[in-house]
Fold this sequence. Notes:
Protein name: D-inositol 3-phosphate glycosyltransferase
Number of strands: 18
Number of helices: 14
Pfam family, one: Glycos_transf_1
Shape: globular
Largest sheet: 8 strands, mixed
Domain Glycosyl transferase family: 223-376
Domain Glycosyltransferase subfamily 4-like N-terminal: 35-214
GO molecular function: glycosyltransferase activity
Amino acid sequence: MYDTPGATPPTRNDGTETERPLKILIGADTFAPDVNGAARFAERLAAGLVERGHEVHVMAPAANRKHGTWKEVHEGQELTAHRLYSWRWYPHDWLRFALPWRIKQNSARVIDEVKPDVVHFQSHITVGRGLSIEAQKRGIRIIGTNHFMPENMLEFTLLPGAWQEWAVGLAWKAARRTFGRAEAVTTPTRKAAQFLERHTGLSGVHAISCGIDAHKYSPSWEPRTENRIIFVGRVTGEKHIDVLLRAVKLLPVELDAKVEIVGGGDQKRNLEHLAVELGIADRVTFTGYVTDDELREAYHRASVLAMPSIAELQSIVTMEAMASALPVVAANAMALPHLVHDGENGYLFAPGSPEDLAAKLRMVLEASPDEYRSLKEGSIRLIAAHDIQRTISTFESLYRGRPVTDPVTEIAPAALPSDAPRGAVAQPVRAVDS
């Protein structure tokens, strides 16, 4: 490793020591061009590390039949990609996976070619398992990050319902073995860290935000000209988009609320049929996948982001919307309450309840201009703690084997007086992770 005892560090022109750049191998079961939170985080992390002068290699399944090693440009930065021969998992609408029975061989080959200082895997399923086994044999530092909940994949396994609980148990045992090889384990939020510890028996899991390049999302302060609700993400069953459509049906007709579903997935046709059944098809638009520029425009068109998913370990989409100064109405589940604070930047609703979601959407859509602006300002204030540069700095410390203090990203709102007017915003209190 570059920072092993006895290595002579380089110096700046003024004679002070600087740290040598690292050679980092990131392993991922899903990576760009895949569109999901884990893939986006790995891409942003890799690009940010390259921008800081590190040599970054990414090992991930090939996005098509072409496999091998080549240079790729992500977020404007060039890195080396080791794309593994992959098969398409057809129950899923886009997922490709590296062959499990070849993963140790491939991991050994890539590690021996790259000779990394550190291996950072993004899930335990296939690539992370192979890399952790082979890196451990060679005495290479291992960092593991979890973005995965086994329950999210159940609908794509084709397993009978009676076997699903057994399969989830096996998945968590596999996670325990793989993450157990890592020197440090991270996940995006304190709630997610506690969840991982509870299901694997691990301890000391770090809560490190995926982070966001907030400067890439510009707030729009233009007055609203329509009531437009936006959802961004995979159009799959785990996102509970049907709850959103049923909630829109319950909104007063005079609001003339429109819905924009941004993203693709296997449930698109079923949801289109549901919109027809509910009589709201003329107010629902399915855009499919969009470019980054188109996504930023979609956030600007919207009045509010709706996030009905109940299995978000952080939700990069919610952070993007907040950086765009959008109020958010989200399910009161998993990590979403860490981002959405009632009355500050939006509202939480009872998971799975179209009635409660409709009620909370009305609170945003019927808010006065001053109340609405306060919600928008709340999103901007709360997202400031999730600067990706802090995330990258924390991982750099882990890569060098240094102890870290989890960045403070969870801000607890102060209680409002009982007679406070609707829309009043309390000054937030920083909540330090225990």
